[in-house]
Amino acid sequence: MTVLVRSASLTKFSAIARGAGLDPVRMVSQAGLDQSCLYTPDLRIPESRLAEVLETSARFTACHSLGLMVGESWRLSDFGPVSLLLQHQPTLRHALAEIERYRHWLSDSVGILLTEYPDVAVLHVSLQTGRQQPGRQAIELTVAAVFSLIRAIVGGQWTPHSVHFSHAAPVDLQIHRRLFGQHVEFGSDFDGLVFASRDLDRINPLADANLAGYAREFLDLQARPSAASIASDVRRTLHQLLPRGRGAVEQVAQSLGVSTRSLQRQLEQDGKTFSALVNEVRCELAVRYLQDPQKPVSQVATQLGFSELSAFSRWFASQFGKSPTRWRQDGA
Questions:
Q1: Mean pLDDT highest for which of 18-22, 243-247, 267-271, 326-330?
Q2: What are the residues facing 126 on neighbouring strands?
Q3: Does a structural domain hold residue 143?
Q4: CA 241, CA 238: separation in Å to the nearest integer?
Q5: Are strands 120-127 and 110-116 parallel, antiparallel or unpaired?
Q6: Domain tally for the chain?
Q7: Which of 105, 162, 198, 332 shows a CA-CA span of 20 to 30 A to 269?
Q8: Reduced to 3 states, what is the DSSP secondary structure of residue 256?
């Protein structure tokens, strides 16, 4: 399955690439993309090609925060047809709910999961890419774009308690701190933002219920830009929930807004089973996590929903033909 995203990130990339001494037309052409994606934000392009443009450009320029700079430049209008709806939501909580509802207008790749605690909220950002590693540039672009969206809704001076990335820190943190402030953590268990829970319900003084209703009606009348299958939706949701210890079929069904029986029936009609999809996502995440030498195998087991390391090791050997420790040693 080809994971598609809007080309809006490349329209932002163009100016940043030129500022770094790169020819953006050449960079997208080398990745097999037409140059029209540099000035047409609503094209649907393979996520892997976007990641290739960003990673290659970062290597050429030795600017390891290039994706972050692209995300920093995002504005509310860059969210395309959904922008008007988001602009007129009464609170951030409402806006995040609408992003999930109209995710098909934005990306087949990006997933967000909000977890609330008494005083803080954690916004987990995940990417379903079909590749072993999403890559630093794609992750940092996405987190920065979400950060820019929140600022557009709650105010330009808003700052989170902390920003988290699962990858290692770059040598130079100047751009990260300019954008996010001093509290940026790397090598974390997740990618995303931690902020005050009260920010979710801060009133948006510019919200207009009539305009929000108009925007919603307009979106609902349009043909969906992609026809994602229920299996794709389950995989995306599992990528979000499984590392949080919430990968049961009932929890996935609830997240998707359907009953457990309805979810299983739709999967059956699609020729899939929930257990097979869980296994697929576990394999993808196992490879991703084990490629990080700083992450203990026991932690990987826990993040994949195994209560005992021995059970994880047996499962992994059945899937990959060797133990997770041996797999990591062999550099597979």
A1: 18-22
A2: 111
A3: yes
A4: 5
A5: antiparallel
A6: 2
A7: 105
A8: helix
Cα dihedral 317→319→322→328 (10° resolution): -110
Q: Can you tell me the mean pLDDT for 142-159?
A: 92
- CATH code: domain of residue 235: 1.10.10.60
Is residue 167 one of the residues assigned to a domain?
Answer: yes
Q: Strand, helix or coil at 36?
A: helix
Alpha helix positions (H), the chain: 8-19, 24-30, 47-61, 66-72, 83-87, 92-101, 136-154, 174-180, 209-221, 230-241, 249-256, 260-269, 274-290, 297-303, 309-320, 324-330
3 state DSSP class of 7? coil
- Asked whether the beta carbons of 233 and 256 are under 8 A apart, the reply is yes
Neighbours of 273 (CB within 10 A): 13
Q: Is residue 16 part of a domain?
A: no
Residue 133 to residue 129: CA distance in whole angstroms: 8
**Within a domain: residue 42?**
no
260-272, pLDDT tens digit by residue? 898 898 898 888 8
Residues 170 and 249 in one domain: no
The rounded distance, in Å, linking the Cα atoms of 12 and 7 is: 9
Instruction: Report pLDDT digits (tens) over 284-305.
Output: 889 888 888 888 899 899 989 8
Q: Of the candidates 104, 85, 146, 88, which has an alpha carbon nearest to the alpha carbon of residue 121?
A: 146
Q: Which domain range does residue 161 map to?
A: 68-201
Q: What is the pTM of this model?
A: 0.79
CA distance linking residue 25 with residue 94, whole number of Å: 38
